[in-house]
Amino acid sequence: MILVVVDFLLFASAVWLAYSLRYSALYDPTVNQLLLMLAAPMIGIPVMYAFGLYTSVTRYVGEHALWTIFKAVALTAILWAVVAYVARLEGSTVVPRTVLVLFWLFSLLLISGFRYISRWLILEFTQEQTQRRNILVYGAGDAGRQIAATLKQSQNRTTIHQVDDDATLWGATIGGIRICKPADLERMIERHGISEAIVTMRSANSSRRAEVVDRLSNLGLRVRILPAFVDIADGKHTVDLIRDVEIGDLLGRDAVPPEFGLMEANTRGRVVLVTGAGGSIGSELCRQLSAVGVSRLVMLDSSEFALYQIDRELAKQTGLEKVVVLGSVDDAALMRRVMRDHAVQTVFHAAAYKHVPLVEANPFEGIKNNVFGTYNVASAAYDSGVEVFVLISTDKAVRPSSVMGASKRVAELIVQDFAEKARQAATGKVFCAVRFGNVIGSSGSVIPLFKEQIRNGGPITLTHAETTRYFMSIEEAAQLVIQAGSLARRNDESGQFPGRIFLLDMGNAVRIRDLAVKMVQLSNLTLCDAANPNGDIAIREIGLRPGEKLHEELYFSVEAAQPTSHQRISVAMESAPDGLDISQTFKELQDLTAREDHAGLLEFLRRVAGMGLQAE
User: Is the separation of the CB atoms in 70 and 108 below 8 Å?
Assistant: First the structure.
């Protein structure tokens, strides 16, 4: 109602101003001219109503509203001109053509100006009076322009600054914001007191985004990132599209979309068993498998709570037939019963103890789970209707320095032995292993540990300043494992790589100290060191723990890694040590474990798995 009253007065004022400017004097209308003046708002109000200008919310007036006002005022001016023409024919009054043009111009300026001034006043006096924020938007593409416009409109006490890599945009003004070049970042931050940055470079690759995020973080900004459209479509980001930078954004690694043919070859329409289904990798395998359309998903884990969690999560999916089995891979009879009763066709063996210090302190339990458990599952798979068996291995199996790594190397040898048996017996069964490094956010990973230590105020405990590790996302790792199993079957049928160990491309190794520093910066905190003794979070070296290595490896020699048809998957042309009899070796290990002969166990692992041997 306020707008209707104000618009009535503004339309009438526009007529009066048009006449005054036309005659260069204050306009004093006659009775007929006054009636014609009042006709303008009588025409304009219904037109404005028809265009929806009395249903829009003033505080959100934007470019679209300005275009609507332009059309409504233009139509009002045309209709008023028709009325003026009729009045002229009747001889009641004459309206100069200049007045018609000036009426349209003044109406547009007054009505649009009133709405924009009202919007500014509403935002200025109704929003909480906080300190003005200066935000940097890195990227001036479609996403960057939309984010900048949204921030300007919704947060009145916010000033937006924008930077882009495209040299053709430098110095241009888009949406009232001047686009600057990256070389000006330091000057802009210091001059305007910028404290936050939003990265919107959705067309850039991960390496360039990681470089930008790293630079902004080093300049002391709190950095957030706009996710890619594919992540929004997948439901990973819905309401809050702008998210904090995650550590995966800093790895500079572009995830490769999965090849659906490989994802489905061993899984779609099949009964699939996942051991260790409640663990980090196992649970992600279950999520991926449930999405590709397995006929039945059998999930096995010894942890009741972990199994309950993944079962409850997958219960939301319709049309998924799943079976939960609470038990351990140490139980050979259970493994055979599960394979037989559920007619399992594909096995992903992810159950394992992976925490190096814990397995080092409890070596025999590690051997039972990692070695005997693998033998039990592989043996049951060999004697049943299983067609494909995939062992989830680790880079710690290469020249292992720990009992955990050595146990996984023995597990690899067991799988290779079953593959050779299947080949000689021409059973058509496929046995393979997939070897990769750390996954971001997995249980026992340094990343959750560092997050907790930062949350508690530090210090971050680091084993060694030069320690490096390989990292990849859990989603990508699980997808590549599934695809590697399909490659193993395809290559085994062709006789190319029978029973080989597949390697996932982990990208470049990451220095753990650099990772810790970046995590401190992403938390909008400062590092406490000799250069900044008053910083927030300190880093303390505690020394390598038993069994840990400075650097991990994915293969015994670069020459032994051969490419496959998938760009992120290679195959290690590695065979068991000469003269190694797995059956005899397995019995020897069983005897050592039964006697809990610790010295004998370590000597066995050195001889069979190469534990403690270093690369030349």
Answer: yes
